[in-house]
Design a protein that fits this description.
16 strands; five-stranded antiparallel β-sheet; OB fold (Dihydrolipoamide Acetyltransferase, E2P); mainly beta; about 55% strand; single chain; SH3 type barrels; six-stranded antiparallel β-sheet
């Protein structure tokens, strides 16, 4: 059991049958009341981000999450197939659970698959990935009075804003937390 005042961002726990990871925490103590612990959490089964308030002496059940390095192989139509790089075991995760992650996955990309006991909870992407530009308009000469940007479509179908000097077939580094252009590869 974990006392809620000991929770920190990144910790995982079970509460009311759901598994959560802490994103942010705030301790609120006034003179006449018991401490209120406000937590911003992400439900690891549904992906929903919510707030849960606890009283200062509350307890939650801590959980241990297993993380395995797996390589993305292919899309089988209904799910995404990953292979454990050590045991060569393959698992399929439904596509609807990986909407955001799908924008950054290319074949042979290595990701971290998160398990709770034998249940697959999701995928942790690297903080940045390299993706190739498949289509972007050529830059217009003289259009640089401000920090001008244009749209570029990447190999996964993701469309991002990039500087004017970026051309087709260039490799870019894209942030997976925001989906924004970071730099050239």
């Amino acid at each position: 059991m974990i006392i809620v005042t000991d929770l920190k961002p990144g910790m995982s726990f079970e509460y009311e049958g759901n598994i959560y990871t802490v994103l942010d925490i705030l301790h609120n103590k006034t003179a006449m009341r018991q401490m209120i612990v406000k937590t911003k959490v992400k439900n690891l089964r549904t992906g929903a981000v919510t707030e849960i308030n606890f009283t200062g002496g509350g307890k939650v059940e801590g959980v241990h999450l297993d993380k395995r390095q797996m390589e993305y192989l292919y899309d089988d139509g209904t799910g995404l197939v990953f292979m454990d790089t050590e045991t060569y075991e393959q698992v399929s995760i439904p596509k609807d659970r990986l909407d955001w992650e799908l924008k950054f996955l290319t074949s042979n990309c290595v990701v971290e698959v998160v398990y709770y006991e034998s249940e697959i909870l999701g995928v942790n992407l690297p903080s940045k990935v390299k993706l190739r530009v498949v289509h972007t308009e050529p830059a217009v000469k003289g259009d640089t009075a401000t920090r001008a940007m244009k749209e570029a479509e990447l190999e996964t179908g993701l469309v991002v804003k990039v500087p004017l000097f970026i051309e087709n077939d260039e490799l870019l580094i894209i942030r997976t937390d925001t989906g924004e252009y970071d730099s050239r590869a």
